[in-house]
Amino acid sequence: MEQPFRMKVTVLGSGTSTGVPTLGCECAICTSDDPIHHRSRASVLIESPHLRGPVVIDTAPEFRLQMLKARVKSLRAILYTHLHADHCHGFDDIRPFLFKEKKPIDCFLREDLHEEMKVRFAYAFVDTGYLGALPKVNLEPVPELGLFRVDDVDVEAVTLPHGSVRTTAYRFGDFVYATDFKGLPESIQTRWQGKVKYMIASGVRFQQHHTHNTVMESVEMMQRLGVQKGYITHLSHDIDYKRDRKRLPPHIDFAYDGLQWEIMD
Ligand SMILES: [Zn+2]
Ligand SMILES: [Zn+2]
Ligand SMILES: [Zn+2]
Asked: Looking at the chain, which runs of residues are DSSP E strands?
């Protein structure tokens, strides 16, 4: 179906690649007792009556803890944005979900990344004779630009620049999840203009970053797209949730771990 549709989005992790607290750092945010500043690596959970089960975007290093916290009992599919360590190194922990499914889990990522996936997690793809449980997946291609289907849902993929690599952003109806990118190409801006009401996009920090949008670059992007409600994710320890949200427009806020968002059509 071509959307919109009902879904629930849970921010499993809202942190940048090092996570917050950052190891060895004693800044005010890294030593903060406030759980709003405890940011595991970036990932979201998508649940919808139009999907056969829970879908995650990326498997962060904290995947297991994130699944426990969100009380996720099964896993229908994984959609990968890209294969930087902070977005995929929880992959091995999908194994317990396989005991339930008894078949490989569908794993969607751009075809140019399939080989890298097989190299990075070679033990899961090469038969070594090992008899223990392995994280078995069906690698499914995601288009560079265009629609693909997960159960009853048409998901639109677009490819965005992220330094020396590229990342896939996903649109489900009126909702977009876009992380790890620098700038939205004009063609995507035109394609999505007025189509995206709800968005989670990465921002990292206010200072310039050579491979990531800053907070304000993502705020301005959302404003250009006509987003009605947005959250900035993939946040570093530079972001003080309470102090810095005052710098954001009223319809845009910072994400935090555990944030749940019901999106109705
Ligand atoms: Zn990242
Ligand atoms: Zn710090
Ligand atoms: Zn990245």
From this structure: 7-13, 43-47, 55-57, 77-79, 105-110, 137-142, 145-150, 153-162, 165-172, 175-178, 198-202, 229-233, 252-254, 260-263
Ion ligand 3: residue ranges with CB closer than 5 A: 84, 180
Report the predicted TM-score, pTM, of the whole model to 2 decimal places: 0.96
In this structure, are residues 117 and 78 in contact, taking their beta carbons and an 8 Å threshold?
no
Give Cα separations from 155 to 15, 101, 149, 234 (angstroms). 25, 23, 6, 22
Q: What angle do CA 247, 252, 254 make, to 5 degrees?
A: 75
Distance 15 CA to ligand 2 centre (A): 12
| Contact between residue 22 and residue 30 where contact means Cβ atoms under 8 Å apart | yes
Domain annotation for the chain: domains and CATH numbers: 7-263 (3.60.15.10)
67: number of Cβ within 10 Å = 24
> Would you say how long the chain is, in residues?
265
Instruction: Tell which residue, 108, 103, 50, 53, has the closest CA to residue 78.
Output: 108
pLDDT under 50 in the chain at which residues? 1
Ligand 1 centroid, distance to 140 Cα (angstroms):
22
**pLDDT at 1 (0 to 100):** 46
- Alpha carbon distance 11, 203 (integer Å): 15
Read off the tokens for 30.
Answer: 């890294």
Reduce the DSSP state of residue 157 to 3 states and report it: strand
pLDDT of residue 120: 97
142: three-class secondary structure by DSSP: strand
